[in-house]
Amino acid sequence: RDDLVTGVQTCALPIFFFEKSLLFKNRHKLQTSSPSLSTLLEKDLKLLKELLESYFFFDAKVTALAPEAKSSSRWKQVIQVEKGKRYIISDFKLIFPEGPAIDLRKMKLPLKVGKTANYNILSKTQQSILEELKNQGFAYAHLDEIDLVVDKKKKQAYAKQEVWLKRKYFFGPVKVKGNELFSYEDIRKLLPWKEGEIYRDRKSTRLN
Known about the structure:
The chain is α/β, with parallel strands linked by helices.
C-alpha cells in the first residue's frame, strides 16, 4: 500500500485513507474496464482531499495516474499528492454570546496559536474547554462547532469558538430519605461537597 499514495509520507493520513478507500476495499473485484472504476476513483480522490484538509493541507492537489498493468488480472492505481504548505493557527478566539466571558487563558489547550493542527486537535480542544467549564459550575455549557476561516494568501487559519454557558450551578441543601441506621450528620460528613459549593460532576459521581 505504501507506494499507492505518493507524497504523504508524513503523519498517519495514508492509514486513514486505506481504511475508507472504496478502491482498496473492492480491489479484488475491479478491472480497469469496470464501469464503476471511475466513480470509485472519483470518490477516493474526494476522500483523500478531505483528509488532507483535515490535517490543514488546504492547498493540496490529488491526481490519479493512469492504471499500471501488473499482469492480465492485476493492476496498480497510483494517486499522486502535492501537499503544499501546512497551514498554522494564527488566532483562536473564545466568544461568549450570553456573557460574561470566562478567562480560560491559563488552560493548556491542545490547539496552539502559531502551530499546525488537525481536526482531531480541534475536537480535543472542545473537550478540554467543556471539562473546564463543568469544573467551574457550568454543567450544561454548550459549544458550537469551531468556526475555521482559511486565509490562502497568508497560509493561515483563524479559529473562533462560541461558548454558551447557560447558567452556573451550585450544590444545594441535602435531603436524606429512607435512612433509619445513620444520623443525618454522619451521612452529611460522607458527602464530598458542601452546600453552596460549585457543582462538579466528578464530585457527585464519587457517591457511586
